[in-house]
Amino acid sequence: MSDNFLFICSRNQWRSRTAEDIFKNFSGLNVRSAGTSSSARIKVNEKLLEWADLIFVMEKHHKQWLNQKYPSLLNNKQIIILEIPDEYQYMDAELINILEIGLEPYLGR
C-alpha cells in the first residue's frame, strides 16, 4: 500500500517542489506538492488535501493557513511542520539533507 504525501510551502517553487522531486521515486510513496500563495506554481486545493494521507508544511504559518481555509477537510489529517525557512533554492544540497532527516520517521510507516 502506498502513502500519499503532500508537501506545502508558499510558492511551490523551491522547498515543496524539491521535496516532491527527491521523494517521487521512493518505493511505496505517492508525492505531490503545492503552495499557499496566490502566485504558487500549483495552488493548494480541496482535491489535493483529500488525496493526502500526510501533509508536510514547511513553516507554522502554512499550517495556520490550511486550518483557516480548509478546516473541515483537515479533521482527520496529520499535518507535520518541518520548520524549514524560506532561504533555500530548488534542489539545494542542505535543503535535501534537512528534508531527508525530517521525513525519516515517516518513510516506510
Question: What does this protein look like?
Answer:
The chain is 33% helix and 20% strand. It has 109 residues and is an alpha/beta fold. It has one domain: Response regulator (Rossmann fold, 3-Layer(aba) Sandwich). The mean pLDDT is 95.
Q: What are the key terms here?
A:
single chain; 109 residues; alpha/beta; Rossmann fold; 4-stranded parallel β-sheet; 33% helix
**Per the principal axes of the C-alpha atoms, what is the gross shape?**
globular
Low-confidence stretches: none
Strand content: 15-25%
Query: Radius of gyration over alpha carbons?
Result: 13 Å
> What is the strand arrangement across the widest sheet?
2-1-3-4
Helix proportion: 25-40%
Secondary-structure map:
Blueprint: E1 3-9, H1 15-23, E2 29-35, H2 46-51, E3 54-57, H3 60-69, E4 78-81, H4 93-103
Summarize the structure in short:
This protein is of the alpha/beta class.
